[in-house]
């Protein structure tokens, strides 16, 4: 309550102005992304064609989620290049492909399988209209 009172006493507009000054913009160099994901280009191309998902979107997801590290694992147990959670995206894509269960951890560490499942999931989201549009990156 004291903090809120201090904000109003010093002027709310001044507080907001300080917050805006802390905003940082990041710009990614295309060459940096390409170097990080170079080893996975053939898998990206195959999945892009198979699921009709823009390859630039796939590359961006890989870079953002794992920086191209196929052994990446998050605190929430998202695994691999595209940070797939076996119990959510993995289950949905397995079900879509007529399989029961979920992908194993070993499967999700495999770049080819991870990219395939991740791209299939992006395609599924696009078809369900969770993504506003196929964004041009």
From TrEMBL:
Catalytic reaction list: Exolytic cleavage of the (1->4)-beta-glycosidic linkage between N-acetylmuramic acid (MurNAc) and N-acetylglucosamine (GlcNAc) residues in peptidoglycan, from either the reducing or the non-reducing ends of the peptidoglycan chains, with concomitant formation of a 1,6-anhydrobond in the MurNAc residue
GO cellular component: membrane
Protein name: peptidoglycan lytic exotransglycosylase
InterPro entries reported in the protein's UniProt record: Lysozyme-like_dom_sf, Transglyc_AS, Transglycosylase_SLT_dom_1
GO biological process, one term: peptidoglycan metabolic process
Domain Transglycosylase SLT, chain residue ranges per copy: 44-127
Entry-linked SUPFAM superfamilies: Lysozyme-like
Family to which the UniProt record says this protein belongs: Belongs to the transglycosylase Slt family.
MF term (GO), any: peptidoglycan lytic transglycosylase activity
Coiled-coil segments on the chain, per record: none
Keywords, ordered alphabetically: Cell wall biogenesis/degradation, Lyase
EC number: 4.2.2.n1
KW Cell wall biogenesis/degradation (keyword) present: yes
């Amino acid at each position: 309550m004291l903090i809120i009172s201090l904000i109003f006493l010093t002027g709310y507009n001044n507080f907001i102005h300080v917050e805006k000054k802390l905003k940082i913009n990041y710009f990614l160099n295309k060459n940096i992304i390409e170097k990080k994901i170079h080893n996975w280009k053939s898998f990206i191309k195959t999945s892009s064609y198979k699921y009709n998902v823009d390859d630039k979107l796939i590359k961006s997801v890989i870079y953002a989620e794992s920086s191209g590290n196929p052994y990446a694992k998050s605190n929430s147990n998202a695994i691999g290049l595209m940070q797939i959670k076996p119990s959510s995206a993995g289950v949905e894509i397995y079900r879509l492909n007529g399989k029961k269960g979920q992908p194993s951890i070993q499967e999700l560490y495999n770049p080819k399988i991870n990219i395939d499942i991740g791209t299939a999931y992006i395609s599924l989201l696009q078809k369900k209209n969770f993504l506003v549009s196929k964004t041009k990156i």
